Amino acid sequence: MIRIPDIGRFEFRLADGAANPYLLPAAIIAAGLDDIERQIDSSDRSNNNSYVGATTESAPWKH
């Protein structure tokens, strides 16, 4: 999930504290460059909330 609060800035919100602070930005930039190289149109935005309507089912316990 990427959040764009202002022009010229973005926040990558899926990373956590365990992510390598050097490899994560490199991977994000590499993914963006790959999209440009392969001319992938990623203009479709998703503004939905993944938490709303999510259901979880417990696995049946075998005793």
UniProtKB/TrEMBL annotation:
UniProt region (Disordered), positions on chain: 41-63
Residue ranges of every copy of the GS catalytic domain listed in the record: 1-63
Biased composition (Polar residues): 45-63
Matching Pfam families: Gln-synt_C
Molecular function, one GO term: glutamine synthetase activity
Described purpose of this protein according to its UniProt entry: Involved in nitrogen metabolism via ammonium assimilation. Catalyzes the ATP-dependent biosynthesis of glutamine from glutamate and ammonia.
Family: Belongs to the glutamine synthetase family.
Name of the protein described by the UniProt record: GS catalytic domain-containing protein
Organism ancestry: Bacteria, Bacillati, Cyanobacteriota, Cyanophyceae, Pleurocapsales
